[in-house]
Structures are given as structure tokens and as C-alpha cells.
Amino acid sequence: MILIADSGSTKTDWVLIDNEKVIASYTTQGLNPFFKKSSEISEIIKPVFTDQKINESVEKIFFYGAGCSSEQMKEVIFNGIKPIFSTSEINIETDLLAAARALFKNDQGIAVILGTGASTCLYNGTEIIQNIKSLGYVFGDEGGGDHLGKLFITDFLNNNLSDDIKEKFENTFHLSKDDILRKVYREPLPNSFLASFCEFISNNSEHKQIDSIIKKSFNQLFKNHICKYPEYKKYKIRVLGSTGFYFEKQLKEIAAEFKLKIDLILKNPIKELVDYHLKFDLKSSS
């Protein structure tokens, strides 16, 4: 048996595979090691994986997670999983590699994650060979939900929104400017707060001013990230994540302005990630 996990900060999808078939699926809280200790991770997954016989039958675990870019953070995840799966081989990789494998399988191309934040990489069909670092919600995350939210909220704070959108926003959220500043500068997870406005932005995306904000964010994504990969025009570009999924129209329009084409956008990677391991990883190891 093998167990595959795709983890973000909000939730983790788990899929159990036996004899090249999916036999069970589970969902737990997100297990980002920046926000969870090893002991907390164990407590979260223990009630889900209660059958010790099955746990001992899991030969390999492939855990892909947000926040798993350093060995120190990978160790947090490893120490959280190991008490539950004491006999399993545990492989911990980044959510960016999960995106690349889900989007391209054993092909090559530029993989883009557009969720709350944003990440990109150049993938050769096996591994990530280049990653232009995202600078987070303060200095980067272009194309991500937090960046879209930041551009929109900045226009609101500077009284640059048209009267109709401003009124609709105020009637929806009932947030004063002081409320917004407090949540961004003094409360936890300001990136998630900024990204929380994406539903409103999506619902009003046909408005000329909102459409312009969305395209500005995606323009910066291409300019600051995608177009900086060597020979970027020769690669396929594929996108994973809810922000890319819900703003597909504007994303593809901006890609066309750069004379590029996005041929695949996925909202969630787990199905294609399972497919990758069934078709390529398990076949090659058998």
C-alpha cells in the first residue's frame, strides 16, 4: 500500500492505494509545519488512521505540503507522521513538486500555483530544476489571491474605487478602513485576510475596474516570474489552484498578451497526483 497526501494550510487530502487502485480517501486539517508542531500533526491524523493493521501495511507515504521547502520543516512533518506509521517509508516534498507532477506528469514545463499565494517553477519531467522565489504577500505573490486582494483593498483605502463597487463592498463586508488596517498589521494571517476578498472580486469580475485589477496582478505574475525563466516561450505553462481556476478568463487573456498559452488549469491536484504515482512512479519501481 502507498499513501499520498496533498496538504495546504487549510486542509489535507489523503488517498490510500493498494494493488494500483484507490481504496480510501480522507481529509484532515492543513498540516503546514510553519503553523503546526509535530505533536499537533500526530493528534490531527491519529483519529483518522485508527486501523493499526492498515497503518502497518502502508509501505510508502508521499506527503506533499505547503511550507515543506526546508529540511527543518520536513522534519516537523516527519516527526508528526512517524508515530502513526512507524513502519512506513516517509517521503516529504513541496506543494510545488506536487503541482508540477499533477500538471505535467513526466513531461516538462512551467508549473504555476495560484492559490492564496503564488509559486512557479521549471520542471523537467522528474524534478524541479529552477524556482524563481515568490517574495510573499508583502513584496510578491503576484497572481495569488492575497495579491489580488491587496490591489483591490489598496484602491479601496485610497478612495480609488468607483462609487458602485465601493458601496457594494461596504454593504457586503461592513469593514472600516481602521478595521482593515488592524487586520493586516496586527492580527494573524493577513495574507488569508487579503485573499478572502477574492470571492467578491470574482463575483464582480465583469466590472471594468475589477477586471483591470485582476489583469494587473496577472501581468505582474508574467513579468516578474514566468518570463524570467530561460527560453520560457518554448515551454508549456500550466496552472494549479483556486485563484487560477476562478479567474481563468483574465489569466488566459494576459498570457495571450505575452504571446503565451495556458493549456491546463486545475483547481485541486490530488486526482492527477494519484494518477502520476499510479502511471509513472509505481510502474517504474515495479
Description:
- The protein is of the alpha/beta class.
- It folds into 3 domains: 2-87, 2-Layer Sandwich (Nucleotidyltransferase, domain 5); 104-137 and 216-266, ATPase, nucleotide binding domain (Nucleotidyltransferase, domain 5); 145-210, Transcription Termination Factor Rho, Rna-binding Domain, Chain A, Domain 1.
- Helices cover 46% and strands 21% of the residues.
- It has helices at residues 38-45, 52-57, 71-81, 95-104, 136-139, 145-157, 163-173, 177-185, 190-195, 198-203, 208-224, 242-246, 248-257, 270-285, and strands at 2-7, 11-18, 21-29, 60-65, 89-94, 109-114, 118-123, 128-130, 237-240, 262-266.
- The strands form 2 sheets. The protein has a 5-stranded mixed sheet, sandwiched between helices. It has a 5-stranded mixed sheet with strand order 8-7-6-9-10, sandwiched between helices.
- The radius of gyration is 20 Å and the shape is globular.
- It starts with a strand and ends with a helix.
